[in-house]
Automatic annotation (TrEMBL), chains A, B:
PANTHER family, alphabetized: CYTOSINE DEAMINASE FAMILY MEMBER, TRNA-SPECIFIC ADENOSINE DEAMINASE
SUPFAM superfamilies from the UniProt entry: Cytidine deaminase-like (SSF53927)
UniProt protein name: tRNA-specific adenosine deaminase
Gene3D superfamilies given in the database record: Cytidine Deaminase, domain 2
Length: 150, 150
């Protein structure tokens, strides 16, 4: 028996899959505000020659531009992989309200691993964090991507 | 008796000063490759409605775009303030060779404070770090900026 995923995570996973087909590490992100999607993205580091073009960063930049405000305090971010330190820092700076992520990232994650960024006393804004929604599909997609490149 | 600052830090401080005049928190950054400046930037969070538009992020994105490579392994970054977690993460992802920063940031810094990002076992690339060059001028500029806004 299986249950459908929440719509924003379903969309983020579909964006991740499309990224993989374009040769990018499959991570997708969606930002929701007042029940509406305000930004979507996927990893684009290779396509854009931009080491900062993680899905979360692009989604945050797009949402802030769309709303015309650098603070996204009424926005929730859905992403298929645990954010790294760069992205966790950006989530905090943008004042994202809730973070939903699918797969854990023991090697590069900074939320439940490594620097545990949101738990630092110098972290000025912590989102509510919900992990594991869509984890199986997100992790399988990443494994398949890296296996095909080995 | 005083000595002139290294040219990239002099330039970064001048960029920070110009940012303050435009209402941005005064932080400037410069990326040098093979003795040549390949990117310059200053904070632009307010002007661009972009919470990720820290000087370091813009400099890294501009350098990667200019060089046509998401890896900046032969580049050095000069910045007037200790990088935050977001920027430290980006420095690592971009494989920056050396990081020179002026003023420490006990509240938001992630290099010598808070998450000590480059010291984490999950940090995959650590630049050489040189702190304090131009510290007095950078710190005075930040203090004056915030004092005028209180």
């Amino acid at each position: 028996m299986s249950f459908p995923l929440p719509e924003p995570m379903r969309l983020a996973l579909d964006l991740a899959r499309a990224a993989a087909e374009a040769g990018e590490v499959p991570v997708g992100a969606v930002i929701v505000r007042e029940g509406k999607v305000v930004a979507t993205s996927a990893n684009a580091m290779r396509g854009e020659y931009d080491p900062t073009a993680h899905a979360e960063m692009l989604a945050i930049r797009r949402a802030a531009a769309a709303i015309g405000n650098e603070r996204l305090g009424d926005c929730d971010l859905w992403v298929t992989l645990e954010p790294c330190a760069m992205c966790a820092g950006a989530i905090s700076l943008a004042r994202i309200r809730r973070l939903y992520y699918a797969a854990p990232d023991p090697k590069g994650g900074a939320v439940a691993h490594g620097p545990l960024f949101f738990a630092q006393p110098t972290c000025h804004h912590r989102p509510e964090v919900y992990a594991g929604i869509g984890e199986g599909e997100a992790a399988a997609m990443l494994r398949a991507f890296f296996a095909a490149r080995r």
